[in-house]
């Protein structure tokens, strides 16, 4: 298999899908949804730099994402009480509700696309993406049924 070609196709296809169904899910712009999802699951606040490093974004991109999420009321920035040079990012209650809302039109639109693919192909797509996600973020089985490959 030509993995370089596969990588180029994955980037092209994922951007195309993201601009369609996924990009409109929750009214979020590219990158906001995974950041909000991650922040909403954290018990403690993180710095923008920690978030960027953990999620694989550049610092400037993370700043733009946090600016947008803050404007929407999903996160807040506060100065660290112990070190005033540090800024911490917290998820608001509204941000948590939004991250857990499955009633979005974007979800419905993507579900319709997946149903057109058929069950077998949709499961294969999810399986491949789960493996790629777990390898990228060094996570264990996220959605069930996928084991990390060494």
How would you describe the overall organization of this protein?
- The protein is mainly α.
- It has a single domain (3-117), classed as Orthogonal Bundle (Arc Repressor Mutant, subunit A).
- Helix content is 61%, strand content 7%.
- It has 7 helices and 2 strands.
- The chain has a two-stranded antiparallel sheet with strand order 1-2.
- The longest helix is centred in the N-terminal third of the chain and has 22 residues, at 3-24.
- The radius of gyration is 17 Å and the shape is globular.
- The two termini are 19 Å apart.
- Mean pLDDT is 78; it is low at 22-26 and 141-150.
Question: Can you tag this structure with a few keywords?
Answer:
150 residues; disordered C terminus; HTH_MarR-typ; 7 helices; Arc Repressor Mutant, subunit A; two-stranded antiparallel sheet
Q: Report helical residue fraction.
A: 55-70%
Tally the structural domains.
1
CATH fourth-tier homologous superfamily: Winged helix-like DNA-binding domain superfamily/Winged helix DNA-binding domain
CATH fold field value? Arc Repressor Mutant, subunit A
Q: Give the overall average pLDDT.
A: 78
**Could you spell the SSE succession in H and E letters?**
HHHHEEHHH
Strands in their spatial order, largest beta sheet: 1-2
- Distance between termini? 19 Å
Helix and strand content put the structural class at mainly alpha
Number of strands: 2
Please mark out the parts with pLDDT under 50 across 5 or more consecutive residues, or reply none. 22-26, 141-150
């Amino acid at each position: 298999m030509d993995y370089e070609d596969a990588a180029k196709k994955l980037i092209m296809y994922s951007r195309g899908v993201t601009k369609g169904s996924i990009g409109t899910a929750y009214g979020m712009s590219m990158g906001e949804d995974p950041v909000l999802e991650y922040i909403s699951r954290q018990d403690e606040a993180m710095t923008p730099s920690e978030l960027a490093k953990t999620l694989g974004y550049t610092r400037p991109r993370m700043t733009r994402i946090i600016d947008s999420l803050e404007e929407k009321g999903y996160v807040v920035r506060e100065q660290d009480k112990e070190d005033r040079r540090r800024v911490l990012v917290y998820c608001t209650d509204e941000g948590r509700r939004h991250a857990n809302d499955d009633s979005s039109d974007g979800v419905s639109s993507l579900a319709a696309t997946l149903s057109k693919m058929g069950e077998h192909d949709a499961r294969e797509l999810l399986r491949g993406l789960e493996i790629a996600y777990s390898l990228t973020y060094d996570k264990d089985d996220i959605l069930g049924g996928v084991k990390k490959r060494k």
